[in-house]
Specification:
Helix content: 40-55%
CATH architecture of the largest domain: Sandwich
Organism: Hirondellea gigas
Keywords: Dioxygenase, Membrane, Oxidoreductase, Transmembrane, Transmembrane helix
Shape: globular
GO cellular component, one term: membrane
InterPro entries: Asp/Arg/Pro-Hydrxlase, Asp/Asn_beta-hydroxylase, IPNS-like_sf
Number of domains: 3
CATH class of the largest domain: Mainly Beta
Number of helices: 11
Structural class: alpha+beta
CATH superfamily of the largest domain: B-lactam Antibiotic, Isopenicillin N Synthase, Chain
Family: Belongs to the aspartyl/asparaginyl beta-hydroxylase family.
Distance between the termini: 74 Å
Length: about 350
């Protein structure tokens, strides 16, 4: 048999296979004679099955996990009331802390810590989520008694050492941020996490989350992790109230007002990249995110919000407000109180 005949037979067989494949797909499609509603439902079902298959093939995750992820993404666009879920989570955490406290309360603690813990373990989720205090200082989870209640901590000398360390580290921290941000812009987003906001868009590159170090992300940003270590970030102690991350906030974002989990920490935001007019408001007082390297320190148990002006400028949209955000111990706590809080609220 000549080469041309072999080639012709091969092409014919390929065409037949493609034809059979197309016929199979067409056979799966809804019958044109079906009513529109039934045809739409069948079509959506087939499209969903194909999408789930492609996601499972790409991610290599178990099929059950992919299906759960699919429906979670499908329904997360609809408004939901998470109050009941928040109550359940609060109750679970409260039960854990209560058990730990029962085994430790015989130890010698300061009166204010003892009163604060007793108040916490005896507070119901309903009282804790009471919105009547939305316009005043109100720690959502744990409130430590008799701590200074200043909303802003810029201008005070208590964090001089930490601020000096962050300022010196800024050039290296920014270079590491730009590296992971460049990957983000290219679509390499596996290590980034989307922050769910009602108005706007935000993502974080977590370095420490609730006292747990993200070893992969920190190994990618060694200079940043060293700056966090030298600054004695709360989360490095293993305390569940301590976190650190690179954070992106895009134009059109309006976040808050809201209250943080606790008053035992002071939030610190170091600006890495500016965008359109961006304002942080804490207890009615505003500070702008205006300069790279700028440090803003505040108590997030006070009502706080962030607003970023909207813009149609594509350049501004592609360059969101970026910061390194981290948690520091409240300077009013002594060493014994910090140690007790770590043991109770360990991650």
């Amino acid at each position: 048999m000549s080469f041309s005949n072999v080639l012709k037979n091969t092409v014919d067989m390929s065409i037949m296979k493609i034809s059979d494949c197309c016929s199979s797909i067409i056979g799966m499609l809804p019958d044109p004679s079906l009513p529109f509603t039934q045809a739409s439902i069948i079509g959506i079902f087939i499209a969903s099955a194909v999408l789930i298959y492609l996601v499972q093939k790409d991610t290599k995750k178990p099929l059950s996990s992919v299906i759960i992820l699919f429906f979670r993404q499908l329904f997360q666009t609809f408004p939901t009331d998470n109050k009941e879920l928040d109550k359940v989570k609060y109750k679970e955490l409260q039960e854990k802390i209560t058990l730990r406290w029962e085994s430790q309360k015989h130890r010698k603690y300061s009166d204010r810590l003892r009163h604060s813990i007793n108040s916490y373990v005896n507070t119901t989720a309903d009282n804790n989520n009471d919105e009547s205090g939305a316009l005043k200082q109100r720690a959502v989870v744990f409130h430590m008694e008799e701590l200074s209640t200043m909303p802003w901590w810029n201008g005070y000398e208590v964090f001089t050492c930490e601020q000096d360390i962050l300022r010196v580290s800024f050039p290296k921290v920014k270079l590491e941020f730009l590296k992971v941000f460049a990957d983000f812009q290219k679509g390499v987003c596996k290590q980034w996490r989307k922050v769910e906001l009602l108005n706007g868009h935000s993502c974080v590159y977590p370095l420490i989350t609730n006292g747990v170090i993200n070893t992969l992300n920190c190994s990618t940003c060694p200079a940043t992790f060293k700056a966090l270590s030298d600054s004695r970030v709360l989360g490095l102690s293993g305390c569940a109230f301590g976190s650190a991350a690179f954070k992106l906030l895009f134009p059109d974002t309006n976040y808050g007002p809201t209250n943080g989990e606790t008053n035992i920490r002071i939030k610190c935001d170091m600006v890495l990249q500016t965008t359109t007019k961006s304002v942080l408001e804490v207890s009615g007082s505003q500070h702008a995110y205006s300069n790279e390297g700028q440090l803003l320190l505040y108590d997030d148990s006070h009502p706080h919000s962030i607003s970023i002006s909207n813009t149609k400028d594509a350049t501004a949209v592609a360059a969101p407000l970026a910061m390194l955000t981290l948690d520091l111990w409240h300077p009013g706590l002594d060493l014994s109180e910090k140690s007790a809080i770590i043991k109770l609220f360990t991650s």
